[in-house]
Description:
By secondary structure, the protein is mainly alpha-helical. Helices cover 86% and strands 0% of the residues. The chain contains five helices and no strands.
Amino acid sequence: MDQDQDTAEAADPAALAFEALKGEVAALRRQIAALSKAPAPDYSMTLGAMLEQLRLVQAHPALAVTPETYAAQARQVAQVLKAEFEPLLQINRTALREAVGLVTNAAGRVQDGQELLTRLGLTLAVGAGIGLILGAWIAVFAMRRLGL
């Protein structure tokens, strides 16, 4: 009768599926046991490097600057630049007025239109040259002052 029962169980699909499931569970348990015996990876070097990078980032001076501090520094630099360049701007205004006066006087004295154009062109070229030189000098000075 045991043979009949074994044959009946062997033919029963549910019993077959249950036996297959038991085999899979046993295999999973063996794999989990093997994994628990394996050494865990050592991440200390990676974590140490990450910690060092984080410390470097935290120590960066840019993180200490708030928007209010930055705005105050920008206002201070603008005031310094204005104070330093105001005399130069005044000199340029005076030179421009003198150049306009010279051009006006030259135009009044010059009879020939070609001579007038030549003098005007030279005056404009000299004024543009002076303006370019002063502008470049001011830009270089401002960039140095701003640390650029």
